[in-house]
Amino acid sequence: MSFSRKPKIAMLTVNPGIDRTMYFDKPLEKGEVNRATATNLNQGCKGANAVIVMARHGADVTYFTYTGGPFGDLYEGFLKKEEIPMVAIPTAAGVRLNVKLSDGAGVFTECNQSGGPVSEAEKAAMLQALRDADYDCLYLAGSLPKGLGLDFYAECTALAHEKGAVVVADCDGAVLIETLKAGPDLIKPNSSEFAALVTEGNSIKEKIAIFKQRYPKTKLLLSLGKNGAIYAGEDTLWYAPILDAPVRGTVAAGDTFLSSFVVTTLSGGSVQRALAVATAASTAKVQLEGTTLPTAAQMADRVDEVQVTEYQE
């Protein structure tokens, strides 16, 4: 999954949102007034996080998304600040607002709006925009709003493949299962998502072998949280452990990891190098609060510390 020139990446987010994170210095009291000690507003969806990270890596990326409603301008502003080209299609439903609560006792609660509904005309407009665009990789990120069927990402995958583009899919549950039917080129489930996807097998190696047999067209990047990450290549399982670092915010760490891996491999880097870059980038992210994303310098700071080896169970 690499190109001899700088690849063009299309990031698609169809369920955009804003995150309002509220911080408290003590546990929340149910039924009482709880006053936050600090709050912030950030981009609040996988695609927005990932596209900003890719842009900071220097990627040629265009953001395809929906917009509108009272939070539409604010949402677009986060991307415009990063000077990221956008194809933003207005919807009647508009951009959703998600609320995150950090209670000062280690409990992080997320209250996410569903999003949508997207109309048939709005769906058709997005698909046409993807048909008309020029890109080498289509990156599908996040949940689907009401109005889009479970097979929407599968439809996008088929469309991109017809154009000769590779497809990265970052979704889960029933949407991921439907998307896999269209053969995306790469997915990145976490441990629980992968366990739900492959219920057979008694070990990670067995489960990966079953996955590869079941979905031969799709490469697997498996995130194991504190236990690192595995890439299932043609013949070798490559493993990268995490780096020790103080953890202040895990939101968007997975988005940072996957988008960094994708940019590196598309730009001609080896899988081993991509795992190292992705691990260092996500390490930089978890040291920042909320959905604050790391700079290019922060993401590159510890790349050479990551020891990528063949996975041993």
Key descriptive features of the protein:
10-stranded mixed β-sheet, 4-stranded mixed β-sheet, alpha/beta, 10 helices, 313 residues, globular, 14 strands
What is the structure about, briefly put?
This protein is an alpha/beta fold. 34% of the residues lie in helices and 22% in strands. Helix 4 (152-162) runs parallel beside helix 5 and helix 8 (253-266) packs antiparallel against helix 9 (271-286).
Protein model, in words:
By secondary structure, the protein is an alpha/beta fold. The chain has helices at residues 46-56, 72-81, 120-132, 152-162, 173-180, 191-197, 204-214, 253-266, 271-286, 296-300, and strands spanning 8-13, 17-23, 38-43, 60-67, 86-90, 96-102, 108-111, 137-141, 166-170, 186-187, 219-223, 229-232, 237-240, 309-310. The strands form 2 sheets. The chain has a 10-stranded mixed beta sheet, with helices on both faces. A 4-stranded mixed beta sheet has the order 3-2-6-7. Helix 4 links the parallel strand 8 (137-141) and strand 9 (166-170). Helix 1 crosses helix 8, helix 4 packs parallel to helix 5 (173-180) and helix 8 runs antiparallel to helix 9 (271-286). The radius of gyration is 19 Å and the shape is globular. It starts with 7 loop residues before the first strand and ends with a strand.
- Could you give the distance between the termini? 27 Å
* Helix coverage percent: 25-40%
Average of per-residue pLDDT values: 94
**Major sheet characteristics:** 10 strands, mixed
* Strand segment count: 14
Q: What shape does the CA trace take?
A: globular
Structural class: alpha/beta
